[in-house]
Description:
The complex is a heterotrimer. Chain A has 6 helices and 2 strands; from the N terminus they run ααββαααα. Chain A has helices at 8-12, 27-38, 56-70, 75-86, 100-126, 136-147; strands spanning 41-42, 48-49.
Amino acid sequence: MKRLLLILCLLASPVWAVKPSEVLDDPALEARARVLSKGLRCLVCRNENIDDSNADLARELRVLVRERLVAGDSDEQVVTYLVDRYGEYVLLKPTTGGANAILWVAGPVMLVLAFGIGFTYLRRREQGAGPDQLNDDEQRRLDEILKG
Amino acid sequence: MLIELGHFALILALFVALVQGVVPLIGAHQRRASWMAVAEPAAYVQFLLTAFSFGVLTWAFVISDFSLSLVVQNSHTDKPMLYKVTGVWGNHEGSVLLWVLILAMFGACAAVFGKNLPATLRARVLGVQGMIGVAFLAFVLFTSNPFLRVEFAPLNGQGLNPLLQDPGLAFHPPFLYLGYVGLSMAFSFAVAALLEGRVDAAWGRWVRPWTLAAWLFLTVGIALGSWWAYYELGWGGFWFWDPVENASFMPWLISTALLHSAIVVEKREALKSWTILLAILAFGFSLMGTFIVRSGIITSVHAFANDPERGFFILIILAVFMGGALTLYAARAGAMEAKGVFAVVSRESALVLNNILLAVASFVVFIGTMWPLIAELFFGRKLSVGAPFFEAAFTPFMVALAVALPIGVLLPWKRAKMGKAMAPLWGVLALSVAGGALVWTMQTGRSNLGPVGIALAIWLIAGSAMDLWQRTGRGDLAGKFARLLRLPRADWGRVMAHGGLGITIAGIAGMMAWEVEDIRVARVGDSFEVAGYTISLNDVRREDGPNYSAIMADMTVTKDGREVAHLTPEKRSYPVQQMPTTEADIDNGLLRDIYLVIGDRQTDGGWAVRTYVKPLANWIWAGAIIMALGAVLSLTDRRYRVGAGARRRKGTTVGVPAE
Amino acid sequence: MAKIPPLMLAPPILFAGLAAMFFWGMNRDNPNALPSALIGQGAPAVVAVQLGELATFDSSVFSDGKVKLVNFWASWCAPCRVEHPNLIELAKDIPIYGINKGDQPGDALKFLDDLGNPFIAVTTDYTGRQSIEWGVYGLPETFVLDGEGKIVLRFVGAITQRRLQSELMPAIQKARAAN
């Protein structure tokens, strides 16, 4: 029941994500703010970014991000500012540092592993009966044994 | 009284399931025909009892029987009848009962359609299905009983969450459950085969239609959920990589892989133990999804009221069935040796590649979903893994899959020549590259997602068409066309499913690359331009529905002076639940959606208005529906209708040619 | 019985690990609580903004040598109501500074009039900016500060008797012992 009983924070207040009053006049800065907001987690809503969220805290964070950009912060500085206060929990895209390296390489490593196993399997199929292949008689006997 | 009868039927169903789960399995082990024969009637009776019980609960919702605690908490007399009925599964207890009903229904279907299975296999399949039934019936009765009365019946109920009062969401759970629970059939077949100690081409042929049916429902269920999120949440997102969404996506990926590997088992008697593993995992991921949603172990925006007791119960179910099946697998699967011999370049290998990509892709989704838990447990770090991770780590697999797909389907079984398979595809490749390049030159300074996505989509759609065309063989055009219509439905089904994937990819790429958004304050009478469309706010007025009040904006969209659409986005407020919802109004078009949302009144008297122009948005769901229709077509193929399941003579190892 | 290839053993073993992790995950006390990124650091700056006629404060009071609590609250926050009696009880023992977040002054004052005022001084945070400086994400939140104004503990959620005894008091006592 996937989305059931949902999105409590959406319902928390009738305001909505990015309001007209929040939008910056400078389109370049606004675009940067939008991109940054999409990577920052709204802490009270759990798995939503602050750009989509309606929660008060998300709105406060959106305004903060824009203020810091206007004040001349770089994107990294804005992110660091929030991580210093909320911890890495605020990042929707985990860092690659420390143990997180496992997360990032897990997919590629698994792919290489799968290709290795798959290729070994294919080579064995190509040569027909592999080394531990049973012949038909053995197979039949084994089947009987397994059937009990 | 009726309520008590429904409750009683459910208790009886538990006992019947217990019999169905024990007697036939012992019978199959000891070769006792009479014991095995218990399976079928037990499956029917279990289904009838559960259906009666579900019917009683539905009736209680329909007549608003407020002596039932569940009805009080989730219904209201003012609610439209449709949502009274769908409210049955709009809560934890009712949804688990629906789950149990679907489980029993699949068991009964297996009894009906499995007449020509070998007796022991049939008894074992139904037996395993019965054991799953025992687990979930016990779960309902002991932790989530929907038939609890309240001491003093109130005059009215607390109503259903307004966001659930929507057709998209009302029918999302039943489809999803049909998918989740349908995978239990593949699981039962896998466990039965392990108990039997044999997997052959006939097994592949039997297990495939069940998987196909489950996959088809899962596809529709996920598409409905995503479509609902698109129009209801008010900012037009369609996929959020939330743990609960991932929980439904992982079984989909695994069952897609299973669907393809079962073909290799059926046609070529290879990949047997791998296919068994996929069948176990597909249902395992369904159970895990249930666990994630209902235990609250991972923070998600969507969740049921979480209850640790229920979480533990599901964890035990998960541990018993997955742990048991995987242990049995370790003990037995090694003996399932492949028979078919094939070259490294062959259809078989292409399907192995498909399986590798899908399995590793679902592994990526899995580890991303679990990582916050792992990081907390082993490294003491509280962190988040959200959409940006999945977009970066998952997308490459889908791109690779899409690139390989049209080539793979043209490779013949056993031994293939790459050059020969590619021959009909050079034209398709040229077309895709040209399409991508054209799109790239038309847009300036935007992401490369658009052109790449469009090129891939053309490659898939045209490649699928070429696949179909190649099946018609040689000869003159008229003969080819005549043969085209006589092709097996399975061929048409495959081509539709693959083409549908192309359409979905085009939709995702179009929407993500070229969406235009506009947020502004507009006064009544104002007009403004967004992406070439002129949007006018004509009026804002109050409109009341049966159980809500709304503020409705009257807006027109014009282009070059002609009216394109007249839209009325709303902001609703449901007094019973004191909850506001936004109702976006969307002009659906073939090439773009125009999506309007009305927000709060501003202090200067204007209204906050959000406008999106979303190119190709509908293609996302249209593609999913086409994929599902492809599955339907495939299910009605002749080989499943005529002599389905007839075990082919022993010793024949070479499959029927697919052509 | 044929010997079992090691690759075949991987699925059940991996699954056992996963199930164990789920079991551990379900037994976590408070899975949603976030650790503070500011533990061990000096408390962020606080600006004095008076609420009604009540005494107010700014960061300068944090280094007065005494262990103290800083409590973020609002009148619209239901758990704040729940913990309020415990705060009043606690105030007899330890100075509590209140930061009122996102409230109407009238509502906030009425809340304190009705339920009593446990705070030695109160400042207000209409924009939510001070809360962000502290990494506050939900109300109520309570911070334990040592005599030098370093954050010792962050406590998210209502202070119930049980959690008061098991989490808050030990931290206060430890901070006092270290003072």
